[in-house]
Amino acid sequence: MFASPDAGVRPRLRDQARERLRAEIMGGVLAPGTLLDDDELAGRLRCSRTPVREALSDLGHLGLVEFRANRYTRVTVPRREDLVPTLQALGLLFGGVVRTTIPEFDDRRRALLFRRLGLLLDCMAETRWEWGADAVTPVYRSFIAECDNPLLAATLSGALDGLTYRLRHDDVRAALPWEHIRNGLVALRIAVDSRDGRLAERASSRIHLLPDPDRKDR
């Protein structure tokens, strides 16, 4: 998404700073709301302020950093009111991936993703299970890896961190209908097993709280 003409020669300081900060945000080292100071980050990352500022700008485009002019630059704070719109945005991209990808599965890929979805469902059945990008992102990335449409795969991949991060609100368990979402995951697993792309798209819509694409308005 942020590649440059010389990216194949050597990683730029901007790229290195961005990936280091992205990993720290996604890994929870930099918590939501953490203030990001150019000088402090430059010293810690052992580079000048310019690549740090460029990296923060890139992360702002990803939705991981937010800016308020003359006030602060900080790690994005997920908002409760964004939970459903964020999940729906994720579903619009994911639905296209599963619709086009699942009918092309061979036995190996079908078995792999069937098993991965089963593991996620088992985790959700645990009373202490909590939503987190570390739990669900591997599922999305598994489908991305199997997608033969490079533009569609790149679009979802580029948006994935920013969208899943915004779902890390403390009230996410209370704010979303998890039994409904779980039923959608069961349907997606069935669609994977039967290589049914249309059923998979409908299941994805259910998981992500979108209207059923096969339902006609009356």
Protein described:
Residues 11-78 form the HTH gntR-type domain. InterPro entries: Tscrpt_reg_HTH_GntR, WH-like_DNA-bd_sf, WH_DNA-bd_sf. The protein is mainly alpha-helical and 218 residues long. The protein has 2 domains: 13-75, Arc Repressor Mutant, subunit A (Orthogonal Bundle); 80-207, Four Helix Bundle (Hemerythrin (Met), subunit A) (Up-down Bundle). Helix content is 63%, strand content 4%. The protein has helices spanning 13-26, 38-45, 49-62, 83-101, 107-125, 133-146, 150-166, 172-175, 178-194, 197-207; strands at 65-68, 72-75. It has a two-stranded antiparallel ribbon with strand order 1-2. Strand 1 (65-68) and strand 2 (72-75) form a beta hairpin. The protein is globular and about 55 Å long. The protein starts with 12 loop residues before the first helix and ends in an 11-residue tail after the last helix.
